[in-house]
Each structure stands twice: as structure tokens, then as C-alpha cells.
Design brief:
The chain contains 4 helices and 5 strands, in the order βααβββαβα. The protein is an alpha+beta fold. The longest helix has 15 residues.
Length: 156
């Protein structure tokens, strides 16, 4: 049975699907967090997620006092790497000024609700090994190290 626990988070943040006018704020939040500017990536993601497969994709923002203070993006993927259909989160960022106000948790809960409504029972992500903040966040959401090992090689 698919269940998503409802948590009382006490934060007056609105979580909603991303709109085109949110993309500049997402670009800026991502740049603050990663140190890289990737405007075309975020524009392309918005365009792709605004079209088809709305039930299996989610690109959400958290808005507080009329300002975008966080975002999360993910989609349901099936049978890649031998995995059962699962939700995959591939981007989450919260403005450092509001990070302790459960904004990330609200975003995580909503994307999990969307995934559960689509019929999946697990959510996954991949995190850089040295990104202790993001690792701590996902652990606080109940996520644990999974059965997969990510591998890579420089292409010469």
C-alpha cells in the first residue's frame, strides 16, 4: 500500500509546480548552492517537465512570502539498472536563509506524495560522496544507502 506520512511542519511555505517565471530564481538558487551557472539546463528541464508525463514527473518550488526559496525535481524511472519502478530525485536546493524552516522537508514530502499517487513505493537519489549537507538532509527524510554502487571513469 502506498502511503506518505503527513507531517506537521509548522512552516507557512507554499509548494507548487514550477512556472516559467520561477526559472530565474531556480537558476540563482542553484548557482548559490553549486557555484555553477546552468541556465540552459534549468530552462530545458522546465520545458521538458511542463509537457508530457505530468503524472510521472515533478518539478516543484517552495514559495515563502511570494519568493521562491527552494525547488525539487524528479521523475519515475522503471527498470533501469534492474530497478523496479521508483521515484528518482535529481535536484533539490533550499535557500540557506530558510534552510532550518523545513522547506526541504515540505518539498520532499510533496514529491513523495506525487510518486506514491503514481503507484511507486520507493524513492531514490544519487549524491556526491562529499556533499555532507545533502546526505544529512536525505538521511533525515528516512533515506538510507541503497543496493546500488555508482561507478565512473574519465573518458580519454
Amino acid at each position: 500500500m502506498n502511503k506518505v506520512a503527513k507531517r506537521d511542519l509548522g512552516c507557512d511555505v507554499d509548494v507548487r509546480p514550477v512556472r516559467a517565471d520561477d526559472v530565474p530564481s531556480i537558476i540563482e538558487l542553484d548557482k548559490i548552492e553549486t557555484g555553477q551557472s546552468k541556465p540552459q539546463y534549468w530552462r530545458d528541464l522546465h520545458a521538458a517537465f511542463s509537457k508530457e508525463n505530468a503524472g510521472s514527473r515533478a518539478f516543484l518550488v517552495a514559495e515563502l512570502d511570494g519568493r521562491v526559496v527552494g525547488f525539487i525535481a524528479g521523475e519515475i524511472r522503471a527498470f533501469e539498472f534492474g530497478a523496479e519502478p521508483s521515484g528518482w530525485i535529481f535536484g533539490v536546493t533550499v535557500d540557506p536563509k530558510v534552510r532550518v524552516q523545513n522547506v526541504g522537508t515540505r518539498l520532499f514530502d510533496e514529491i513523495c506524495r506525487i510518486f506514491a499517487q503514481a503507484g511507486v513505493e520507493k524513492v531514490h537519489t544519487i549524491i556526491e560522496r562529499n556533499n555532507h549537507l545533502v546526505i544529512a538532509f536525505f538521511r533525515s527524510q528516512g533515506m538510507m544507502v541503497g543496493r546500488y554502487i555508482q561507478m565512473g571513469k574519465e573518458i580519454e
